[in-house]
Design goal:
By secondary structure, this protein is mostly helical. The protein is 77% helix and 2% strand. Strands 1-4 form a two-stranded antiparallel ribbon. A two-stranded antiparallel ribbon has the order 2-3. It comes from Actinomyces lilanjuaniae.
């Protein structure tokens, strides 16, 4: 097989997910008479689904390490309730409340990681118990809606970056600058990674394939930049938060010892133990990290709602799990990417928004998302079966 064929075969799953996202966007763009990709709807899509992207990043790490976390939605509700009560009832400044929420998320992650990593209770049971515990505590804690959050906290998920650079024919200058920097940064990183791989004697992506991929990315980011720049507010603040999360965790999973250990533990547990990897430490850290990202999602969710409610976070764990699996994570562990989880989250978000614009009943929306998840996992299972046949 040629180098091009080998590379495409290795990355076919990721290309397929991306193609599915494009197809779904085109499908709903036609059915909604162009409303899906209107500038303000694109900004709303990001703001409404930021929590899924954040949770999906943590969930894909958990799944790669061969576990699952059913409690993240309940964690979001519980931590969000704590934020609301600290700010409104106790008068704590909202930045301090956010830090307290992060500390609480880390503590919850330590709690669940302890049972999984050091006691040996299966993650399914630990997090199922966590789902019940934290949902019950949320109902006890937030007996009625806690409203009146300060503008600074509400602006995290609802605000946009200030137009420091002014407007160019109604296009926000800050958004345009961010888009240009994003494209330039990605192109530089890909070229640098290719050069390093070639110097190390590893197989590299063919030039033509790389050029096509970079061209497609430039067009996609350019379109998103133009739509956001023309929207009412420009770049949503929460997009910056999600962008930082994606960059940091992509680096962690691809270029750090912890990332390599997570993949090793998920790919072959016995081999990882024999190679000297502390599998308990890895298991513990992925749940601590999940608690941290659940706290961040709680901040975003509470900010978006402008209040703390007892039903916050309901079924968020299903959205995160679905996004991770749709994005290419393997049921058996050891396989998955942060970028894939983000694409999966976008697919879920586009489905939600497209069906909502079409006024499809929420019950049917749940059924359709469930069907999409089933098909995504079935494709993964069948593909592996054929690969081992």
């Amino acid at each position: 097989m040629s180098t091009v064929g080998a590379y495409l075969g290795h990355n076919l799953r990721q290309y397929g997910i991306l193609a599915a996202l494009v197809a779904i966007i085109a499908f709903f763009q036609v059915l909604t008479d162009g409303l899906l990709l209107s500038p303000n709807n694109v900004a709303s899509l990001i703001q409404q689904n930021a929590y899924v992207m954040i949770l999906a990043v943590g969930m894909v790490m958990v799944i790669i390490a061969r576990h699952i976390d059913l409690s993240v939605g309940s964690q979001v509700g519980f931590i969000g309730g704590v934020i609301g009560l600290l700010v409104v009832s106790a008068g704590v400044p909202w930045p301090a409340a956010v830090l307290a929420a992060v500390a609480l998320g880390l503590l919850i992650g330590c709690w669940q990681g302890f049972w999984v990593a050091f006691v040996g209770v299966p993650a399914f049971i630990v997090t199922l118990a966590g789902m019940l515990i934290f949902r019950g505590l949320t109902v006890v804690l937030v007996q009625r809606t806690v409203s009146g959050l300060p503008p600074g906290l509400v602006a995290i998920a609802n605000g946009s970056l200030p137009p420091w650079l002014g407007y160019l024919r109604n296009f926000d200058g800050v958004t345009i600058l961010i888009g240009v920097l994003a494209v330039a940064g990605f192109i530089y990183s890909r070229l640098r990674a290719r050069r390093r791989s070639r110097e190390a004697g590893r197989d590299v992506e063919p030039v033509r394939t790389l050029a096509v991929r970079l061209a497609v990315l430039t067009v996609a980011v350019g379109l998103l930049t133009a739509l956001l720049a023309y929207s009412a507010g420009g770049t949503p603040t929460v997009l910056v938060i999600v962008g930082v999360v994606v960059l940091v965790y992509s680096f962690v999973m691809n270029h750090t010892v912890l990332g390599r250990h997570v993949y090793a533990v998920g790919g072959n547990l016995k081999a990882a133990r024999l190679s000297g990897i502390s599998t308990r430490r890895v298991d513990f850290l992925v749940f601590v990290n999940m608690g941290f990202l659940a706290a961040l999602a709680a901040v975003v969710t509470t900010s978006r709602a402008g209040a703390a409610v007892s039903t916050a976070g309901n079924l968020y764990e299903m959205d995160a799990i679905a996004a991770a699996y749709i994005g290419g994570a393997a049921v058996s562990g050891g396989v998955g990417r942060v970028s894939g989880a983000i694409i999966g989250a976008l697919i879920m978000g586009v489905l939600n928004m497209g069906l909502s614009i079409m006024a499809v009943d929420s019950a049917w929306q749940q059924a359709i998302k469930g069907l999409v998840l089933l098909v995504a996992v079935a494709v993964d299972v069948v593909g592996k079966r054929r690969g081992t046949a």
